[in-house]
Each structure stands twice: as C-alpha cells, then as structure tokens.
Specification:
Two copies of one chain form a homodimer. By secondary structure, chain A is α/β, with parallel strands linked by helices. Chain A has a domain of 267 residues: Type I PLP-dependent aspartate aminotransferase-like (Major domain) (Aspartate Aminotransferase, domain 2, 3-Layer(aba) Sandwich), CATH 3.40.640. Helices cover 39% and strands 10% of the residues of chain A. Chain A has 13 helices and nine strands. Chain A has a seven-stranded mixed β-sheet with strand order 3-9-8-7-6-4-5, with helices on both faces. Chain A has a two-stranded antiparallel ribbon with strand order 1-2. In chain A, strand 8 and strand 9 form a beta hairpin. In chain A, helix 10 runs parallel beside helix 11. The longest helix of chain A is centred in the last third of the chain and has 26 residues. Chains A and B meet through helix 1, helix 3, helix 4, helix 5 and strand 3 of A and helix 1, helix 3, helix 4, helix 5 and strand 3 of B. The complex binds FE2/S2 (inorganic) cluster. Chains A, B: Its EC number is 2.6.1.19. Chains A, B: Its cofactor is pyridoxal 5'-phosphate. Chains A, B: Belongs to the class-III pyridoxal-phosphate-dependent aminotransferase family. Chains A, B: InterPro entries: Aminotrans_3, Aminotrans_3_PPA_site, PyrdxlP-dep_Trfase, PyrdxlP-dep_Trfase_major, PyrdxlP-dep_Trfase_small.
Chain lengths: 390, 390
C-alpha cells in the first residue's frame, strides 16, 4: 500500500489538518503550517498528509530530506542495536566523544570533503555553522594582524569593548540568506519578515548577479552584469576597510535559495575568490542549502574549479548534521574557542554515514545529473513555447 | 556487569583516549577533549571511559543528561516501533508537523510549563532559543511603540538600516553566559575565550550579586550587595535609554553557571522583575542550565514566587530539546517571523515526554530536594571544619 502517484482527496489544507492547526494554534504561532503529515505513510518523493492526500514533494522539508521519506537503509540504521546508545546518551562531543567518533567523521564527512579541506567540525544547524565560521574568520584575521593576543585584548573583550572586540565585518550579497541568529542576520538580505525590529551591525552588502535567461542568448549582457557585481564586491571591501571596519570574510551561497533561486557562473565565483585573496578577505562558501548532492556534485562549488579551496565551507539540511570544513589557517588554536554544549549530534552523523554509502551504491549523483538535465532542458523548451504563446 | 562504584585503572587520559585524541586531532581541534567514552557501558551516574575507568559523573555532559546514562525507559522509547519514523524523517516542524505533534507538546512541555505561561515553541539548542527570545522581545517592544510597521521599516531593515533595524539592546549581567552565537555573545560576560576577536554590540552589563557564605552569617552584607546590583540594573537601563539605545529586554540566569556558580536571593529576582515592569523592559529568564529538575523544581525561577510570570523562559540541555515559553504579548503575530528549517527535533521531544513521566513516576524532584539538602548541609559543615583547620 505504498503511494505510487499523487492522489488528492480533500481540499488542502484538509479537515484533519484544520482541526490540528486549531489545536496547535493554542500553543504557538501556526501561520506557516501547510499541512500535518503522516510520516509513516510517506515514502520516497511522496508525502502523505493526515487527510490521506498524496503529493509529489519537491520541497522536501525545506530541502532537508536527502533520500526521500522512509528510506529502507535509514530503517536499517535504526534497527542496528549497536547504534542504540547514541540515541539515548547525547554526548558533549567536544569533551567526551565516543570511541567510534573519529571513524564516523572520517566515513561520513571526510570521505566527501571538498577538495583541499581536511578539517571538519560538526554543529547542530546551519545558523550555528555559519556563526562559528564567522568567528573562525575573525580570529584568523586578527591572528594575521597581531600574532598572539595581548592582555588588554583579553580583558576588554569580556565587556564588548575594543581592542578585544574589533570592528570587523563580513561581506554578504544582496538576496542572500544565511540564517536567523543575529550574526547570520547581518549578512542576510531577503525579506523584512526575517529582519525587522532587530538591531543589526553595519556590515556591507554587495550586488549579486541577476542573470538573464536563456543564458545562451544573453552571454554578453550577463558577463557585464557579473562584472558590475565583481566591481561592487571590490568597492565594498575598499570602502569598509577605509572606514576602519575591516572586512575579515565574505560569505556567499553557490545558488541563492531564499533570495529567489539566483545562480551565477563558475567564473564569477572564481573572480570573487581572487578578489578575496587580493584583499586578505577569507572566502566562506555557505553550502547549507546546496550541499549533499542535489546539484549533481556533493558540493556545488566543486563545479567552479576554484584554484584554491574555500577557507571555510558550511553545511546542514540534507547533510543531516550541521558543521564546517576549514583550512589549516582557520582551525582554532585554543581549546573551547569554537565550542558549545553538544557540538552537533552523533545520531545525525550515523544517518549521514549511511546516506553517503547509498549515494555511492545507487550512483545517485549521476542520476541527479541526468534527471536535472532532463528537467532543465524541458523547462527551457516550455519557456520558449510559452514565449510563442504570448 | 553494571559498574556500581568508581574504579580507576589507568592514568586519565588513558592510553586508548590518547590514541583516539591523536586520531581526532588530524580532523579538528581536540584541546577540550577530557576522554573518550564507552556510552554502552556507562550507566546511571557512572561514566565509563574507553580505557575502562569508571567515574562518578557529576558533570553529566555539561549538565545535559537528565536521567543518567542508558535509562531503561529511554531504551523503551527507542524500541517502540511507532516512534521509528520520527527518527528517520526529520520534519520542518513549522510547516509540516506530524499528527501527534500538538499532543507531544502538550505532554512533554505544557504539562511542566512555568506558571502563567501557555505558549511554547521548540528550538534545537540553547543559543537559538535565546536568539529567538531576543527577537520576540525586540518585536514586542517595537509593537508597543508603534503598532503596525511602516513600509519604510520593512524596506530599510533588509539592508540593516534604521528605522527597520532600531538601536535596541538587551541588558545582561556580569558573569553571565547565554551562548556563543553573536546575539548571545552580546550578553555573555565570562571569559575571553568566548568573545575575543569577535565584533560585539554595545549592550549594557549590570553587576550580579557576589554573595558571601555562609549566608546566615552575612545577611546584612548580602542585602547591601543585592541592593547595589539592583541600583546598577536601574542605572544601566536609564543610561542606555537616555542615549537612545533602548533597553527592550533583560536576560538573567537563575544561577550563573559558566560565570562561577553564583546565586542570588528570590527577593533579588523579584526586584529585578519589578524594575523591568516599571521601565517597560521584558524579563527573560534563561533556564538552559537550571531547567529540567536538578534544582528541586522543574524551573529554578518557580522558587522565586514572582508576582507575574517572566515574559520569556528559554530552555535546552537537560530538557533535551531547546525552546522557549512566552506570554501572549510576546507570541509572534506573523508567520515565518520566528522560524528556521527544523524548529527543533521531534525525537528529542519523544525522549522529553518520557523523562517528564519518569520524574513524576519516580518522584525525582523530592529526591533531588533531599539529596541536595544533604549535600549542601554537609558542604557547609566541611567548610566550617576547614576554617578551623587553617
Ligand atoms: S543555533 Fe544551531 S542548533 Fe541552535
């Protein structure tokens, strides 16, 4: 009785969802509820709601389900009694990891590490991964400048004061979304709903390319558009540096998600990295939404052929665990510097380990490439035909 | 073969921990590693390391293990096949919760809600719980001031500008620790290791009482000390308000943890709340470390007998899930306002539901009170005898 095709039986939201929404509405804001889900019945790409409607799910929990619902190999992980103690004894991973932790990191995360990056640290979500990455960049920036910290820096920072808390900034892009904690919000530039009423820092925001489609017909125009944005990146860095608000890092999504599904060329990103190198700015690629295989490579930025690895790559969502890969230079030098209670959750890494195997065993990256190309070329055709229609 | 008493067989860290630390050191900073743990063998209050040393664990994963290791009732939760699909299909809870979600919130979280609070929203850790709570307070503060937002506010905030991003602040205390994301760091005042090199906002920091012990012998002095701190709270609010950096909220831990295990009297906290009410400042109690029962009540602040509930109470650690309770006034009015991909993790709430039952079934709160009183009075005696010794 597995659902094999979409089957809509009620209005959506259906009567059961409506009743449950009312119930939940007494407890919390329910404005974002689409429907309540029967997760036991959902399977693969089909999500089944509590009113028994079966829908083709292309949204997959805000792009956070890597292998579809109820993948049998994930069931196997849960049935393995060796894994049980991980689920009921959540460790403080930074202090008391289990014996199998280094191997798990190796198999789940280093086996798919972006080229050139061999350090990885887990976190629990995309926001804390980005927040910690900012901190890595701030510290590495200061370290380059001054070497060992002074006593004055150590004392002043406890009360939010200079020189211990320097006026450093991270450069983001217009249309970018990097999370909803206060550090991440400084470089998030999407909708008021994410930002209004909250104090923000004066961090720079550069233009992100708005390409024209079809790409083949707008080559020159798109080149100019990207050049304009690169010029803006350069200008923003110079402007802020000149004002003593030094740009320590630049963060960019390979494909803007929340900001409107905006892409740029591989060359654009290579140029951004080159500007960063020139200006002493660390280059942070936020693969929270793009990482995990849905672009045909585990990391979208692998498709850019960068001459050097990014300084830091963050991930979460379909990777099941949050975290970051970083270069030697960015790795924290002191204990407890990049730290929190849990430092991620080993149960998510257990599932990730299996996911990585499934991707390999079932050759899913090639499948993504073939299916993606099919979808894209047919969308192109639809677009052309639609143009004729109008 | 369950460990029944401490049993130390090797130096700590032992040889197996040393070998694993070296291995992990190639992947990440290991400066905080104490030892690697055998979680299958650990039981109750006894933690067993990979070198087979058995230790009495009074640190319990930075105070995040509520019922000791491998509690049989947690094993039962995992064996219940009805729970399985929660573990392998992590939902975006704000959009697509499962049918049992409202009941789970009811049983796990509302059944133990602080008096007067009936709204609860889950988050994934203490830091995001606090960050979201700040945002609730900022919005409620602005709402009181202006009612509906203007178009100018909606547009300006996207680029971090006023009036959409007003210059609001949260008042914290000296010695406070509230997390390591950038919002939380603004009100964290502990050690340089948490803060140095990171830009911070100019948010106020008030003195927290440093009481003298034994309390019975220092009544007058401690009263004065608390009065001094209350005066400082009042002064900091007035000072910042006068500078146009309006104090929207005040955050306080019931017992400072990271800052040195500092307590204050119930009266102190009642007075702090009274000052907040007088000044139109929201009162945020951070129970991330104190919540969950280890003080003899589920929430430490229940012992203050506040005349009004706090405006927001955050939790995590021993509560297994992060989240916040909030008053009607603080509840977000718009969809997607307080939101992120996962909005917590239902598998943690499954375990919490069971934990709440165990606390009740086994009468654990009384046990904490009796054991806590025993420990405290004997520590007092030790202190007196030690004084004589010197
Ligand atoms: S900030 Fe990432 S889990 Fe809380």
């Amino acid at each position: 009785n597995e659902p094999k095709k979409p089957d809509v039986k009620t209005a959506i939201p259906g009567p059961k969802t409506l009743a449950l929404t009312e119930k939940l509405g007494k407890i919390q804001n329910t404005g974002a509820i689409n429907f309540f889900v029967n997760y036991e019945k959902s399977i693969g790409n089909y999500i089944v709601d509590v009113d028994d409607n079966v829908l083709l799910d292309v949204f997959t929990q805000i792009s956070s389900i890597p292998l579809g619902y109820n993948h049998p190999r994930f069931h196997d992980v849960m049935k393995n009694s060796q894994n049980l103690s991980h689920f009921i004894n959540r460790p403080a991973l930074g202090i008391f990891p289990s014996a199998d932790w280094p191997d798990k990191l190796e198999r789940a995360l280093l086996s798919i590490a972006p080229k050139g990056l061999k350090h990885v640290t887990t976190m629990a979500c995309g926001a804390c991964s980005n927040e910690q990455a900012f901190k890595l960049m701030f510290t590495a920036y200061q370290r380059r400048k001054r070497g060992e910290p002074t006593e004055e820096e150590k004392e002043s920072c406890v009360y939010n004061k200079e020189p211990g808390c320097p006026d450093l900034v991270i450069l983001g892009f217009d249309g970018a979304f990097h999370g909803r904690s206060m550090g991440c919000l400084n470089v998030t530039h999407t909708k008021w709903i994410h930002k209004m009423d909250y104090p923000h820092m004066d961090w720079p925001c550069a233009a992100f390319p708005k390409l024209k489609y079809p790409l083949e017909e707008n080559v020159e125009e798109n080149k100019q558009e990207e050049a304009r944005c690169l010029e803006d990146v350069r200008r923003k860095i110079d402007e802020y540096n000149a004002r003593g608000k030094f740009v320590a890092g630049l963060i960019v999504e390979p494909i803007q998600g929340e900001g409107g599904d905006n892409s740029a060329s591989a060359d654009f990103f290579c140029q951004v990295q080159a500007i960063c190198k020139e200006k002493g700015v660390f280059f942070h690629v936020d693969e929270v939404q793009t990482g995990g295989g849905s672009t045909g490579t585990i990391w979208q930025h692998e498709q850019w052929n960068l001459p050097h690895p990014p300084d830091v790559v963050t991930f979460s969502k379909k990777m099941l665990t949050g975290g970051f890969y970083a270069t030697d230079e960015l790795l924290p030098r002191e204990a407890y510097r990049i730290f929190n209670t849990w430092m991620g959750d080993p149960t998510k890494v257990l599932l990730l380990e299996e996911m990585v195997k499934v991707i390999k065993d079932e050759n899913l990256l090639s499948q993504v490439k073939v299916t993606g190309e099919y979808l894209r070329s047919n969308l192109n055709e639809l677009q052309v035909n639609l143009d004729k229609l109008w």
